Amino acid sequence: MESLKHKLPSDVEEEDAFPDVKRVRPAADLPPEMWELIFRNLNAYWLRSARLTCSSWDQIIRGSSRLMSKFVLTLTTYNFMEDRKMVRNLLATGGGYTRVKMDFELIGIHKPRENWLKPLGTTLRTLTLEFSCTEVLLTGLLKELPNLKQLKLIVRSHWFGSGVPSIRLDKLDELSITDPVPNILSFCRMLCPQLKALKLHGYCGAKSKLKNEIVALISSTSRTLKELTIRVSKKIVDDLVEIEDLRLARLAVHGDADDVLRFVKQQPIIEDLEISRNIGISTLDEIISVLPKLKKLQVTIVNRGIQKTFSFMKLLTIESLTIRIEDWFMPIGANPLLNLTDCILTNLRSLSLFRCNLTGQFLSDLQRTHVSELTLESCSLPRLSDLAPLKLLHHIELNNNEYLNGPADDDSRCSSSVRSLKISEDDRSNLLAAAKIFPNLECYEAAGYTDIDEGVLEVILQHSPLVKELRFPMFHFGDVNCLRYAVHRFPALKTMVIHCSKEKRASFVESVRGESCNVAVEFTC
């Protein structure tokens, strides 16, 4: 992050800026609690700079788990091969870090000694470990990390021994395993006896040779387990439905629709459900009917040419809803797939729709909901301005939608409650229309490769003069003048995020040096 605040004039050297004769007595030291409140507003880049400024600040930051959680310590096999002494010294002072990533693939003889990790283990809560090693090395690493809350294992080996771990991670709440091999799930079953969340990513559940280990791990932690990510098969479901004390609150599942339905029927208290495989409307209706406490739903609906309508009628408790349509836009004039008429959705706050054909009636019915966050991606709708009357809408994301009546309705007199807009748009006319239809924005983000120039910025300024944050994290600006325009013309601007090469970055910073500017600029590469 580059700060443009309090820049010295370009002809003044830092050493000469404050002559000794004019130095004043330093202000009284602030208590550590005050410094922590100040540092809380800094990102990891500036926190690192603060730690390097003086030992007092370093101690204050190290002593705060909230501040240290912004850092991720990354260690690789290469580090241990090339500079073991440096890594050892780093680990010796590693107390304070709460998150660590270790890439120990093919580490072999370069592995760290067990006691090197001891200082790190006092505060470490989250570990991501990519490895191709034995159960002996894994036990040795985890032995010094007794306070872990989250463990993510990315397995890069084809063999794992059947040994019994000599330790237990009683404080571990969440275990995530990618590409497991035989024996490792059994190892984890003895290692982590009180899991609250188990995430088995990818095709883990589809590997028949792992089926027994998966079921045994879930069964052994069933009394505490509340969250599960899994790919199910018929055989796995046959065993899972027999676990009487398994009561999940969150489930992310991939599998045949009938198997998913059969499993979900045994989990009536689910509040958060994600179904990553396509599912028919009839099956979805059945699933919803057996989940009276459902608050969050992510689902992909398959439409095989059968014009059946999905009604939101049963989603009385839903707070967040994401719907994807597998097929492309339905033909214009076809029966609407989504139906909001006569639905009472007083709890719905977040709605995300992908590849949906939204009718004027649906958008009119949407006005009766309490939706405050709306995402539309690759959807078709009559007019962009149909979204303006949503009076409780605060944040909206628009990603390459189709407006059947074009952008001609970009009436600058539109009033909208939207204060945050994220847009990805190839059509310049739609980009300009959005800036007019959603005035009085406080945050504007152009996602993807949306083409932003001074003309677009001028329209944004005209209709949203009090924008506080401009974000262009993906678009590669080539015109420094465009950047300067944004920084100097928006009177309320506080933060700007841009994608910019190092060469252009230096030119931009130099171009505003010495000028009054209260904007913090963050560059992404």
UniProtKB/TrEMBL annotation:
Top-level taxon: Eukaryota
F-box domain location: 28-70
Gene3D superfamilies documented for this protein: Ribonuclease Inhibitor
InterPro entries tied to this protein: F-box-like_dom_sf (IPR036047), F-box_dom (IPR001810), LRR_dom_sf (IPR032675)
PANTHER family for this protein: F-BOX DOMAIN CONTAINING PROTEIN, EXPRESSED (PTHR38926), F-BOX DOMAIN-CONTAINING PROTEIN (PTHR38926:SF73)
The protein's name in its UniProt record: (northern house mosquito) hypothetical protein
Taxonomy of the source species: Eukaryota, Metazoa, Ecdysozoa, Arthropoda, Hexapoda
